[in-house]
Amino acid sequence: MVSAFLGTLGLTLAALVALALTIARGRVSVASVPRIRLVSTVAILFQLGHFIEETLLQFYVRFPELLGLSPWSQKFFLTFNLFWLIAWVLSLLSIGAFWRISVFALWFLAIASMANGIVHPLFAFAVGGYFPGLWTSPLVGILGVALFRELYVGRDTGRALAQQ
């Protein structure tokens, strides 16, 4: 349990940044919802591919070992990732309702995706070869940047809701 806690501290930091952005940036505008949905859908699909790569090639064993921690159970890794995949799909479906929780989950997707695009090549460099998640991480990272941009520019200034 300590290994899972320590190994996911980076994602906890990402969630805190997502929360700060959710509070600071507010809801998204009505006009931005279709683009956010499109980019989010593609990002979620690539994140699913990334998750499959990590699962098949045992990221849940290799990453904790890289940090000097005990391996995570496959059950923990699957549960953790499936939770977020479901949360992202639900957020994608509910973004038009303008709930902040939906925006939070998508900010987290954007930030975690960008982090994946950076850290997986660093992990591969650290081990001197392939590291689980490396193949899909560049596209996941690029989609994270694209989603971050859409969420950032899609801020609701209050005018969009007033015009409805």
In short:
By secondary structure, the protein is an all-alpha fold.
Calculate Rg over CA atoms. Answer: 17 Å
Which percent bin holds the helix content? Answer: over 70%
Strand content: under 5%
Give the low-confidence spans.
159-164
> Given the structure, what is the number of helices?
8
User: Which geometry do the CA atoms define?
Assistant: elongated
What is the CA-CA span between the terminal residues? Answer: 49 Å
The number of domains: 1
Look at the structure and give the mean pLDDT: 90
Order of helices and strands: HHHHHHHH
- Biggest β-sheet description: none
Q: What class would the helix/strand composition place it in?
A: mainly alpha
What is the number of beta strands? 0
Written overview of the protein:
This protein has 164 residues and is mostly helical. The chain has one domain. 76% of the residues lie in helices and 0% in strands. It has helices spanning 2-7, 9-25, 33-56, 59-66, 74-94, 100-127, 137-153, 159-162. Helix 2 packs antiparallel against helix 6 (100-127), helix 5 (74-94) packs across helix 6 (100-127) and helix 6 (100-127) runs antiparallel to helix 7. The longest helix is centred in the C-terminal third of the chain and has 28 residues, at 100-127. 34% of the residues are buried. Mean pLDDT is 90; it is low at 159-164.
